[in-house]
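STRUCTURE REQUEST FORM
Protein name: cysteine-S-conjugate beta-lyase
Source organism: Acidipropionibacterium acidipropionici
Requested output: structure tokens
Priority: standard
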Amino acid sequence: MPFWDVPGLIGRRIISVPMITGADGRSTFDLEGIGRAFAQGARSIILCSPYNPLGRVFTETELLGLSEVVEEHGAFVVADEIHGPLVPAGGEAQGRTVPYASVSEKVATHSINLMSASKSWNLAGLLTAVGTLFTDENQRLWKKEVHELETEGASTVGMAANLAAFTSGQPWLDEANEYIHANAVWLHDELARELPQAHFTVPEATYLGWIDFRDYGLPDNAGTWLLKNARIRLNDGPTFGPGGEGHARINLATPRYLLVEALGRMADAVNSR
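Status: completed
Returned output:
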């Protein structure tokens, strides 16, 4: 998982702050925990919004709360919003996500926005992304600290494909989002029938699902267990940090018949333990 690997490559120490359950029953920021991490010496936070792997679309209120903690400690936000276009109109978030830098002018001064068409339009192989800084001072610091050869390697084809996706690709994406959302709803309903002790919430965004197998006693690396016993490949929960034990991440951006086959194998393997 790049969030865990890349910071270490540049000598940064990672302080993990798992999500907590909010008053509405949804996962949200642990603002006190984030504040403690800053007090321990952290100078920046990686914000994945919408949130992978849980599929949360954070509200403006949640993001403002985060920004207040960041401002209090003079920290910086790296806002990875690559899943931003993957919000179905028929889902709980009704097709809308809130970019972190949009919640206030002050927020824009302590953040960088990272975006690409690679997730939403399946263009990851073209290796093209965009980082947006919102103040002259932050742009000056970027040019001072980051060598241009590390950031200017996008291919011509990748740039053209991203431009085409963002300017002309919305009709296709709308259909894709609704198909993915329908897959998520189907999986939720079928899991309730076939594996009622597995817990799954329909994601508000992304094409990824997060399944909790702990009540079935699956090992921490549930994805590895499913690969061995059900011959399906899901991501191990611990890959995404503390709290992922006994969970697995599934890709919902797939034809329905493959999802049907995967669930059948999953149910057979788990129920025959």
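Reviewer notes: The chain has a mean pLDDT of 93. Strands lie at 20-21, 27-28, 44-48, 76-80, 111-115, 130-133, 199-200, 208-212, 235-236, 247-251.
Form closed.
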